[in-house]
UniProtKB/TrEMBL annotation, chains A, B, C, D:
The lineage of its organism: Bacteria, Pseudomonadati, Pseudomonadota, Alphaproteobacteria, Acetobacterales. Pfam families: Glutaminase. Its EC number is 3.5.1.2. Coiled coil: none annotated. It catalyses: L-glutamine + H2O = L-glutamate + NH4(+). This is Glutaminase. It comes from Plastoroseomonas hellenica. The gene is glsA. Substrate binds at S64, N114, E158, N165, Y189, Y240, V258.
Amino acid sequence: MVDLADAARRVLDAIRPHIGEGKVATYIPALGNVDPHQFGFAVAGIDGTVHGAGDQDVRFSLQSVSKVFTLALALSRGDEAIWRRVHREPSGTAFNSLFQLEFEHGIPRNPLINAGAIVVTDQLLAETGDALGLLRDLLRAETGNPDLDVDRVIAASESETGHRNRALAHLMASFGNMRNPVEQTLDHYFRQCSITVSVTELARAGLLLARHGLQADGSRLLSPQDARRVVSIMLTCGAYDAAGEFAYRIGLPCKSGVGGGILAIVPDRCAVAAWGPGLDAQGNSVTATLALGTFGSITGWSIF
Amino acid sequence: MVDLADAARRVLDAIRPHIGEGKVATYIPALGNVDPHQFGFAVAGIDGTVHGAGDQDVRFSLQSVSKVFTLALALSRGDEAIWRRVHREPSGTAFNSLFQLEFEHGIPRNPLINAGAIVVTDQLLAETGDALGLLRDLLRAETGNPDLDVDRVIAASESETGHRNRALAHLMASFGNMRNPVEQTLDHYFRQCSITVSVTELARAGLLLARHGLQADGSRLLSPQDARRVVSIMLTCGAYDAAGEFAYRIGLPCKSGVGGGILAIVPDRCAVAAWGPGLDAQGNSVTATLALGTFGSITGWSIF
Amino acid sequence: MVDLADAARRVLDAIRPHIGEGKVATYIPALGNVDPHQFGFAVAGIDGTVHGAGDQDVRFSLQSVSKVFTLALALSRGDEAIWRRVHREPSGTAFNSLFQLEFEHGIPRNPLINAGAIVVTDQLLAETGDALGLLRDLLRAETGNPDLDVDRVIAASESETGHRNRALAHLMASFGNMRNPVEQTLDHYFRQCSITVSVTELARAGLLLARHGLQADGSRLLSPQDARRVVSIMLTCGAYDAAGEFAYRIGLPCKSGVGGGILAIVPDRCAVAAWGPGLDAQGNSVTATLALGTFGSITGWSIF
Amino acid sequence: MVDLADAARRVLDAIRPHIGEGKVATYIPALGNVDPHQFGFAVAGIDGTVHGAGDQDVRFSLQSVSKVFTLALALSRGDEAIWRRVHREPSGTAFNSLFQLEFEHGIPRNPLINAGAIVVTDQLLAETGDALGLLRDLLRAETGNPDLDVDRVIAASESETGHRNRALAHLMASFGNMRNPVEQTLDHYFRQCSITVSVTELARAGLLLARHGLQADGSRLLSPQDARRVVSIMLTCGAYDAAGEFAYRIGLPCKSGVGGGILAIVPDRCAVAAWGPGLDAQGNSVTATLALGTFGSITGWSIF
């Protein structure tokens, strides 16, 4: 039997010497102000108990980790149509950008890269009228934090500097793969990325996937097949240009964000969240990556 | 001695059986309403005399032919800096798009493709505050038509459907190669493309380049070197994906537009404009291409 | 406790209705002669016991599955230099070809695509003088079949039709990333791919990786880190253009070949081999893919 | 009336201060031994009189200039089929390589880049059995030098280092666009490039195109349309990655080679050859480029 509280403590001990390593993201100016000497870790057991360590209650910017939950919401509508608008294969380093999107006629490679997540948000917005609202409601319910919300300063900063995301969205629009006006979809997209959570909250929300689609209140959001779909995409596409390296170091399905957070799922067992603001050259948190690798080894739950 | 009036008549005779051939552009909805059974031809001798034939006074949408004059205006400021923002080599069929722009770090291949012309407009706008106004003034002066103006319906239609141009501009912005807000530059760009002229007016305006940079009033707009630069770019980059075929058929420096107009320059001799709304598969006017090839043969001024 | 003998039987039962599905590979003519109505399955427990089902002793062409063992041999030399000659990230659908290799200066994306495996063979050949011999010896030892060998007809057929592999190798040579003459390396490469094995033999050989680098005779071939490296590359890069779909369907580190075989590894537990000649559109065996997915579900060893 | 003898003298005077500029090509080792302090210039009037200057009788390696004559030979067979195997548009800087060829299914962009010239040689070889022999015979007849031949040392050096050409040829073969064994075609191709000529000889041979397809003995090799085709391809595709810059500097249809030679055609008037071993960054001879630009200005025969 794995003792998760003990595992959390051991992870923190292992990471402590590395706290502060890496470089805080600056491409969104508002993200650059975070104190790099922070580290939080939390594991939520399948029964809902959360064991945290370090800065477990400090909130950070979800950024791309939000893509996992937006995808879950889109799939929860039982709508297979999304798979005509986005593929589900890795994108390949350095070609994850406009190039591939153009050659593949405006269909992004997977829902966890920016272009793909924009399409998923666009679909959710077209179907429901409020992509941000749905995500916020889901995360409030699953994290147990009714005040969870968007950081408006970061959202504004994202929007201001989001030229590449605008290029992606307009390119998709030119191929007929946008259903709402580009700026409207991007407004939801930028705000989704700017939601703040703590690792405690994020681990708790991740149980949605560890439980194969069941929400905290016991109701079903996703079919088991769709939950497996989300987790399998995390496994092969969750770390941008470093999917291979990530698999080697961690051996679990993960999604990272430039806010420094990473969410990992161990189906039937737990959801794990780690956070440290300092990033490596690929944009993944140095300490969170280390923490999840350590957790996989300690528990024996890594695929290796 | 070449008799230009006679040449114009002979060109019309040769083209008559082909009038109506090709497909009117529809990608900008407002362009699709033009009657395809029209054809205009005009040659302006170096002395300023214009000899026209057919629908020589019907106005059509300049579209990409405008890029030649915007480039001339940007160069007229004696500012070499523009060449740090745009290259001057052919783009290669089918790779003239976002792909090449991304791999070349947001520096477009030449000023006569869309991305390049957007950069030139952006430069002119940043330096002068009114890129459209300058172009309109120049064309009014050189065509001799003080009422020359933008077709607002077409400009609005261009803007509405301009997703690919927006993708290009935002991609350049993401590389730091835009000086004004994207929508502001595009507003000038779309309106420049939507200026209407007749072949008579266009041929007259083309004399600016046939005279190596001298304007109709005898003042110098461009240095001879810069005029040669513009004309040489027309020669190798004036026909999008069909530069080779164009060179073969015409053998003169040209610039075509999807409005069906083509401008050709014979330095020291004349400027020639032809117009027919029906386009071939590469987007070049069928009758205007034929007309300029015929003109080159009749006069012996083709390079071949 | 999982009963592997029972699992093998249940897999066969589940697959039986699908035997014969898919299309036998024909791009190498000699591969096209295989009877499609065959299916073999075998699982080798960590203790070395093998449980087979169906055509468990029929031999087939290893093809790309051989790449896993060639990589293991190259790494066994403790030589990190190979990682200067090949990356270890997924390649991205449809761009796994010369294109990516050219843009990345002749450094292939990973050792399990053709270009990467050619580099690994080239390295092994340069270091030892006999890449094929080493692989054959390793597989003879690990499969327990002293007569295991190359199918010369298939090897000749591969060589004859191997234009794309030659293009890859010469492109790498032009970037200085080949140490032996191209034809010499390719000769070893083609023959490695043409080795024949049964699923019983392949499962047994796969234990090398399930045991983190220990050979059948108890000696260490690979460090645990290098064994983990090989397995992690299988997880993200083992299925060409269908890595994402493979992860979803199977949830285990795998490597497939166009001969219809697939090898999967469950570290510390077992190695599994499945074979059926009929391939799906991505070149992966229909029945072998199904079989491994079924095995993952039955045993609960899939990552999901 | 232009005095060609005088023009040749004036060109030499203008170039003299620049002799020795540029870097001798070294990518083919045997080319690197040439003394850079040489310069030759010759113009052959339409009547056959040749006026030379400088090192007008020193022989150099034709290299890519040979592509013009191989193309003429292929077209001389009245065989339009070659245009199903090669396009005739510019290739675009930096994308002239395997990348474009792969995306365009093994059909090279034009006959004056390496891939295209290999296809033309392959076609000629398949149709006649001796591509090299035909080219040598043609050049012997047109240059008036019955001893004109291949430099075997250079041919061997080309073959030895020709990995990229092999990659191109095998890639085309993989698309079914090679009719002979790759090595056989390349053997002819490498030897064609290794033919040596003087500028006097090259200018004389160029009259074939200036006379719209008539050979020195008055017989017709090419139809006027095909001659125009060759010359138009020179205009847009004759200078690899510097077509635009070349057009600007020279304004005449040209073909350059890394041996330092350039051939230019002025239809109905003359053929011009210049040679200097020092190359600029794009691989075009510094002094030969300057010389042809000067010649165009002096004579007024530049298109500008």
